[in-house]
From TrEMBL:
Protein name stated in the entry: 3-oxoacyl-[acyl-carrier protein] reductase
Family: Belongs to the short-chain dehydrogenases/reductases (SDR) family.
Segment forming the signal sequence: none
Coiled coil regions, renumbered to chain: none
SUPFAM superfamilies: NAD(P)-binding Rossmann-fold domains
Record carries keyword Oxidoreductase: yes
Keyword Oxidoreductase among record annotations: yes
Keywords linked to the UniProt accession: Oxidoreductase
Length: 157
């Protein structure tokens, strides 16, 4: 952390926390007026438990702050039909970011307990679920989508 410049710190906080605050200030009034809204923020695995992350202090501090902001807006806006949740992906890297779940199932991943790498489609499915009309009872929730792999503290086999 001490190696971060003040500019790097501010960039992480502004890009990962402040930007969401400003976006919510612009969009929540419209959601209130229609008595419906879905807010889905993006975190990192275990952000809900405020895990530290070596060499990523600014990023993790911003995302953990975003957990609190997500939960706060969830409670504040529930009466207006607005939900707010967070998706926290695991280790989705390289070509898997754009891959489908079917493609991922064709490649065994010995490091992920379910046996395959996560994909962008896995994350998209969770976001889509949060956005459904029938998901109105789910708010203030933070969901890890990681196939059982502890990304931050992972130990390779």
């Amino acid at each position: 952390m001490v190696d971060h410049t003040e500019e790097e710190w501010e960039q992480m906080i502004k890009g990962n926390l402040d930007a969401v605050f400003h976006l919510l200030k612009l969009t929540v009034p419209a959601m209130r007026s229609q008595q419906f809204g879905r807010i889905v923020n993006y975190g990192f695995q275990s952000a809900n438990t405020a895990a530290g992350w070596i060499n990523r202090a600014a990023f993790s501090a911003a995302k953990v702050g975003l957990v609190s902001l997500t939960k706060s807006i969830a409670y504040e806006e529930a009466e207006h039909g607005i939900t707010a949740n967070m998706v926290c992906p695991g280790d989705i890297i390289g070509e898997m970011k754009e891959a489908t779940i079917l493609e991922s199932r064709k490649k065994h991943d010995p490091y992920t307990p379910i046996g395959r790498s996560g994909t962008g489609e896995d994350i998209a499915r969770m976001v889509l679920f949060f956005c459904e009309n029938k998901s109105d009872m789910i708010t203030g929730t933070v969901v890890d989508v990681n196939g059982g792999l502890d990304v931050i503290h992972q130990q390779r086999k």
